[in-house]
Automatic annotation (TrEMBL):
Protein name: D-3-phosphoglycerate dehydrogenase
PANTHER family from the UniProt entry: D-3-PHOSPHOGLYCERATE DEHYDROGENASE 2, CHLOROPLASTIC, FORMATE DEHYDROGENASE 1
Signal sequence bounds: none
Gene Ontology biological process: L-serine biosynthetic process
InterPro entries cross-referenced by the UniProt entry: ACT-like_dom_sf, ACT_dom, ASB_dom_sf, D-isomer_2_OHA_DH_cat_dom, D-isomer_DH_CS, D-isomer_DH_CS1, D-isomer_DH_NAD-bd, NAD(P)-bd_dom_sf
Species the sequence originates in: Nicotiana sylvestris (Wood tobacco)
Keyword annotations from UniProtKB, A to Z: Amino-acid biosynthesis, Chloroplast, NAD, Oxidoreductase, Plastid, Serine biosynthesis, Transit peptide
Documented EC number(s): 1.1.1.95
Pathway listed: Amino-acid biosynthesis; L-serine biosynthesis; L-serine from 3-phospho-D-glycerate: step 1/3
Coarse class of the protein's main subcellular location: plastid
Amino acid sequence: MASTPSPRTAATTLQNSLLSSSSSSVNHNKPSNLSFLHASSNSSSLKLFHSVSASFSPSNSSSTICNVIKTVESADISFSNARDLDGVVSIPKPTILVSEKLGEAGLDLLRSFGNVDCSYDLSPQDLCAKISLCDALIVRSGTKVTREVFEAAQGRLKVVGRAGVGIDNVDLQAATEFGCLVVNAPTANTIAAAEHGIALLTSMARNVAQADASMKAGKWLRSKYVGVSLVGKTLAVMGFGKVGSEVARRAKGLGIHVIAHDPYAPADRARAIGVDLVSFEQAIATADFVSLHMPLTPATKKVFNDDTFAKMKKGVRLINVARGGVIDEDALVRALDSGIVAQAALDVFTVEPPPKDSKLVQHENVTVTPHLGASTKEAQEGVAIEIAEAVVGALNGELSATAVNAPMVPPEVLSELAPYVVLAEKLGRLAVQLVTGGSGIQNVKVVYKSARDPDSLDTRLLRAMVTKGIIEPISDTIINLVNADFSAKQKGLRISEERVIVDSSPEYPVESIQVQISNVQSRFASALSENGNISIEGKVKYGVPHLTRVGSFSVDVSLEGNLILCKQVDQPGMIGQVGNILGESNVNVSFMSVGRTVRRKQAIMAIGVDEEPNKDTQKKIGEVSAIEEFVFLKL
């Protein structure tokens, strides 16, 4: 196998290889396996018909694909081909809309890749009017990316980048349905947010903001602003993700006892920095300080309410640098007035900016800052670069490790799986072209053979690419990792997976991939396995995907160009006969392989060709007496 590329270049290398065909012809209308291209929201059936039209009514819309014998072309992408004066194919640069201020370093990176439109303070109507002309959108927390935005994009919008961590201002469900990748920048501002949390904690404990305002008003009130010590106190970190864990580290350095609540945090990671994971009730009941670092979700919205405050230790102090919506602000004012909450330090609010007459903001025991968690020079530049890299990577066909609405596939896994991604999609594409009849595709099974432990084999990306290969040739929907499972479900396609442990080298993630389609008729009867399913199998050899089994016949053919499968009587001269027919029609043969079950009985001849044989050539192949059936498949 070829050497594994670096995580940064793996997906790009894969894309470039997929976009290349021959030196004289480049097909830029064909999407790459990892590209996050626009997806149609229309649902179409997976019905296939041999020559006679029939009707089919799924839950949404329907379409029929007639005459499967015809070559199936993949869907086009939204960029149109253009040629310069020398006749060289060129692709227009993507348009990237930046709707909120972004650091210059990030903007420079974006400008080197595409056309950047910096339009700030857009109204929802203005955003919807612009978005159909954009391939990417970058926002901070102020822009609401709603379903209406995705609908207005008309399928062109491929990626939304959130310059920051929280993505509650983006409709993820709508993004997924429209095949739009959503990425964020979760690491660049982690330290800045954690430092701001500690700054609020310490300044609140010592009344720094109030004392400063008092002195500037000409007063000297030493006795009024007596604070509390931090050493020996208990801090409850509510949400033990990147920011929460960094706050915990710094709080430990101040001599604070730290506990945390997070239903998804691994206990060993918490123990590694001396933090005990406890229940929500135990955390709020025992803490002297409560620091919030949880996302805003339906489950966490206003989770800090009257009932929650009533369960807290009297005199607790609250810090929030996460999301304003997790606190019922009216309930917090009541808790402050009653003394249950002694003080609060807030950087975020339910509505930003909050009303000028907000009782919470004006409360004498509340310290406030205008959403400054990520507002350091270093963090702003870091976030700008991080989100720009993620957006450019997505437009280039890479899957960012910070993808929010797609499976989180680490860069090293992406790199390792790159050649298998190509194999998975081509097997799906081959399998669907073998289907005929009007029963429709409903059940697909993907079998992964590997020497690795099944639990350590991440197959989500491979499953998505099999789905892509099956759906795209017979539908107007463009499939990517974002919408693969959703699109399959919408079309009534059930995809199951099986992992089989084999005795081979665990150095490689997958020994082979097998795709089975059940309860369908086949254009090529020899592709049916003993149980009656269409079954094809392939593996990666020296970095190149190969077809290794068709039905019960073993073959060995590189999955490049196009493929002719012939079932024949196993006798001398067959390769020469078919080769001569193709040669007379100027069809170049790139490779050939013959697999048989029993000598001198039947065999499968797999022939790779650069061009599609015309009808006369295919007819001549079918007239060879020893050939029982054949099929042409476009890869």
